[in-house]
Structure prediction request, 92 residues.
Amino acid sequence: MKRFLKVISQTAPIAVRSEKAEGGQVMKSVLVLQEPGGKFENAFACTLLGTLATCKFYAGDIVFASLVFNAREYNGTWYQDVMATDVIKINH
Prediction:
């Protein structure tokens, strides 16, 4: 899904273990994005990985983001993950 969204918040990037990453770890951050229209619109807590996780976004920034939604099962419980694979800041 690709759309315009407003940044609500972002966590500081941290290094996490990754079997796929060179060196065994990758940077990770969580970016909370919300659809335009008001405080009751849909919001998404999106995982940012790698160099994208080290980019700084500020509350109120308008971005064009590509979001990927995945569902996975763990011990009989289903979880949904949202990953932002590309985030382009529109306002400067």
